[in-house]
């Protein structure tokens, strides 16, 4: 599937993560739903624009050079984008895989730039797998890793996906409760501050947060269903994480050890191991991924 084909999805995605239709104004005041929708669209626009601008920084970056054995299988590779990450954001990664022997590489932007229900994006991934035909490998950046895991676990993807790589994905859910930080929970002062912050967030931040953001929070129905472990089966998993991610905490981005699970911690500093670099300029992440997916 070409980039042009994927872009055609965007029109259908336009309002999938928007709140319900606003009520009519009463007494000349703007209903709360209208304010929420306006705020949400503003946040979405600023986020997508910021990601697009950052992608231009490495538009001319040379492809990663893989010095290991050549890829000798014919599986297609699907890169599933993360929150607000469009096709252009992963152009460097795509060029690098193609330059190093992977013949079919596709980039899948999640539904509505990953603002909509993660399960809808997983269904789109299933459609791409069927169109490509045969077995595939899937690399998911940030939210994209959860999309891949949901597809394998809940939508029968284990029949088609040989490897799943999560790059800086919140595999254990984004920690937002004080219970997620035992060292803070022991402090009475920290608990009081958290109560105030939590109340403010519930009234201001969460109402304009997208569906996907709420799903990624630790303890959400989505994360409870997905779980922090992966099912046994033919699909193998690699979780790539970094202390310098800056978006997803190090403690939230690994997967519990298992026969079909491996974890890699990046050792480079913040410039080459931040959340964006993991899926772009980090040669360390690229080499770890190539080593993993080149296997039969």
Describe the structure.
By secondary structure, this protein is α/β, with parallel strands linked by helices. The chain has a single domain, classed as Rossmann fold (3-Layer(aba) Sandwich), CATH 3.40.50. The chain has 12 helices and 6 strands. Strands 2-1-3-4-5-6 form a 6-stranded parallel β-sheet, sandwiched between helices. Strand 3, helix 6 and strand 4 form a beta-alpha-beta unit. Helix 5 packs across helix 6. The longest helix is centred in the N-terminal third of the chain and has 25 residues. The two termini are 23 Å apart. The N terminus is likely disordered.
Output the keywords.
296 residues, Rossmann fold, 6-stranded parallel sheet, 11% strand, alpha/beta
Record the SSE blueprint.
Blueprint: H1 3-7, H2 9-13, H3 32-56, E1 76-80, H4 91-99, E2 105-108, H5 118-132, E3 136-141, H6 143-154, E4 161-167, H7 182-185, H8 188-204, H9 211-216, H10 221-226, E5 236-241, E6 261-265, H11 270-273, H12 283-293
Parallel strand pairs: 1-2, 1-3, 3-4, 4-5, 5-6
Helix pairs in contact: 5-6
Rough outline: globular
Give the number of helices. Answer: 12
Q: Kindly identify the CATH topology.
A: Rossmann fold
List the secondary-structure elements in sequence, H or E: HHHEHEHEHEHHHHEEHH
The description of the largest β-sheet is: 6 strands, parallel
pLDDT < 50 runs, ≥5 residues? 3-32, 181-186, 199-208
CATH class assignment: Alpha Beta
Per DSSP E runs of 2 or more residues, the count of β-strands stands at 6
Secondary-structure arrangement, i.e. CATH architecture? 3-Layer(aba) Sandwich
Percentage of β-strand residues? 5-15%
CATH superfamily (homologous) name:
Alpha/Beta hydrolase fold, catalytic domain
The class by helix and strand makeup works out as alpha/beta
